[in-house]
Amino acid sequence: MQSRNIPQQVQEWLAEVEQNAMADTERMAQLCDKLDQYADENNNTSIKGQSLFYRGFNKYANAQLEEGMEILSTSINYQISAEMWRLAANAYNSMANIADFQGDVSMAIEYYLKGLYIATEYNLVNLEYTIRSGISNIYIGLGSYENAAAMLLDCERISESNERVPVDPMLI
Fold first, then answer.
1. Confidence check: pLDDT of 140 > 70
2. Residues contacting residue 2 through CB under 8 Å, at least 6 positions apart
3. Res 22: pLDDT
4. Closest among 75, 69, 63, 67 to 36, alpha carbons compared
5. How far is residue 166 CA from its own chain's centroid?
6. Is 136 in contact with 107 (CB distance < 8 Å)?
7. Helix 145-161 and helix 125-142: axis angle, to 10°?
């Protein structure tokens, strides 16, 4: 069972990892090691899901795609268990990008659709927008312009229905 009372030190590690995940990869890895240890000792799926997400995303962002894919796919079970929908949808989006980059369009679409389901179910408009845009790029690459247009129209609908689509710092 997870504790609602996370020690201050662990909260600080999480904040530092989230804020500086790309700035200092060595420091981020050290903090994720500490977070993993805390999560394992305390059976805390939320902390474990966050740690694995940032570790995997960092690998992905630094072009270590296979390692990133493996870590991100492991992270999703923890995130879903802890109901961390933003991170789960973001992990699926990242995995879709990796699969697309590696030329596995069918896996990319599968990951995008899983992320899209979470994003729409939990009203994560920034992720919904980003995922729909990624799907439209695949459709364009396949020459399926009608499907691409439908996805882009959904992106337009999202933009128009929100004064400003919030930017998720992990999507930059």
1. yes
2. 42, 43, 44, 45, 46, 82
3. 74
4. 75
5. 15
6. no
7. 160
